[in-house]
Amino acid sequence: MESQFNAGDVVKVPFPTDDGRTLPHYGVVKLVESTFGGELVTVVYGSSKKVSPTGHLPHEFVLFEEEDLRLAGLKVPTRFDFKVSAKFRPEECALTGKLRLDDPKIANGLRRAIQAVYNF
Q1: Residues 75, 81, 37, 91, Cα dihedral to 10°
Q2: Is pLDDT above 60 for 89?
């Protein structure tokens, strides 16, 4: 069975907080995996707070161009922290858009954030 989600999709999910609650956040799908219990979608945490196109941390990827935001289903610049992710069932994820993975600027930004996390 083919998944309804793919890496690079932008979704809205109930992200867990440190105190056990959940808050709705946008995130980027990092991985979709099939398990015996069903499909799991790993989502990278997104936030629209403290967003800077040039002042973000190495492990963060920032969307700020109007066209990129529109295609992702976002209204304001958003940073995605590749050090923070969580797994969700597909029914917990609402697809809002996609990243333009064929755009070299997007692909390079994602590559830098992933390399910063995994040190390669």
Answers
A1: -10
A2: yes
- For residues 109 and 99, is the Cβ–Cβ distance under 8 A? no
Q: Which residue has the tokens 């920032």?
A: 62
State whether the Cα torsion 106-89-120-50 is positive or negative: positive
60 contacts 113 by C-beta, under 8 angstroms: yes
Q: Tell me the CATH class for 9-118.
A: mainly beta
pLDDT digits (tens, 9 = 90+) for 27-52: 999 999 998 888 999 999 999 998 98
Q: Which two tokens stand for residue 72?
A: 């992702």
Residue 17 has pLDDT above 80, yes or no: no
